[in-house]
Amino acid sequence: MLNLAILSRGPGLYSTQSLFRAARSRGHYVRVIDHQQCSIVVEQGVPQVLYEGGRLVGMDAVIPRIGTSVTDYGAAVIRQFELMGVYTATRSEALIIARDKLKCLQKLSAEHIAVPRTVIAGMPEAVPRLIDLLGGTPIVVKMLESTHGVGVVLVESRSTALSLVEAFTKLGQPVILQEFIAEAAGADVRAFVVGKRVVAAMLRQASEGEFRSNLHRGATATPAVLTPQEEKIVLESARLMGLDIAGVDILRSKRGPLVMEVNASPGLEGIETATKVDIAGAIIENIEKGVERFSKGRKW
Questions:
Q1: I want to staple 98 with a disulfide (CB 3.0 to 4.6 A). Which of 258, 264, 273, 276 is the partner?
Q2: pTM strictly above 0.70
Q3: For residues 16, 83, 300 and 259, what is the CA-based torsion angle, rounded to 10 degrees?
């Protein structure tokens, strides 16, 4: 039996509950901890995490479910557990890199993973030239950290693109500009990686009049079968990001699969519902193996 902690601000959320039930059904002790309520104690040789008036001790593993709005503090809490010698299902540095869309794409493209052509404007004045590099409009404008399609806009004209970049820049929100893959027709594939295998995949189709294929925006989801090339790219992307648990989103383009994003804290509801695969159970089983390796002195 393992002593597990799920780091989550929403104990009633589907993903949190699914993981909780999967852990309990396997005989593990598990509790849900609000990472925002954790206090980090930095002291020479004695890293500590305080919660509800006491020290958190005796845990075998933590399962991070960190929301986008609290990435930095969530990562700091994960890092503290790492310093305490606790196995973490998602490493702190991997979470930080995956959350930043530009850093993620930079790392993947440097390792020859195909991604949509992407640029970032240091100054709004560069936007017209960058649009030319992308092959002209329409283009997609994205905030560096976004979720559920928030901060993602399809832009049809140069003037609108310039206005958006100027507005985001004034708000201190850098954005990336990305080529629009028209042939994807509002669909993408989310592949869920656990350990070194793809445990499930779904095709997400945007609703009529919408280009974003997020389920929170009315998209539909159906089970998908990956091609051998897609599976190879998905697994390599998760490995390069240092993630044992990942949702890898790919677009099916004329030039082959393009990795759009690697999600370090992918939701379970949509894909478990669409595929009927017990992904939470696969995650707990992978953590059991990870703790065993870790206890033998073999790091993550």
A1: 264
A2: yes
A3: 60
CATH of 118-180, one of 1.10.10.10, 3.30.70.270, 3.40.50.1980, 3.30.1490.20: 3.30.1490.20
CATH number for the segment(s) 3-90: 3.40.50.20
Q: Are 198 and 226 in contact (CB under 8 A)?
A: yes
pLDDT tens-digit readout, 96-135: 999 988 899 999 999 999 999 999 877 888 888 999 999 9
- Asked whether the beta carbons of 96 and 71 are under 8 A apart, the reply is yes
| Cβ density class 226-255: b for 16+ within 10 Å, e for less | beeebbebbbbbbebbbbbbbbbbbbbeee
| 8-state DSSP, 207 | P
Q: For residues 233 and 114, what is the distance between their CA atoms, to the nearest angstrom? A: 8
Which pair of tokens denotes residue 86? 């606790």
**Quick check: 95 and 265 in contact, CB under 8 A?**
yes
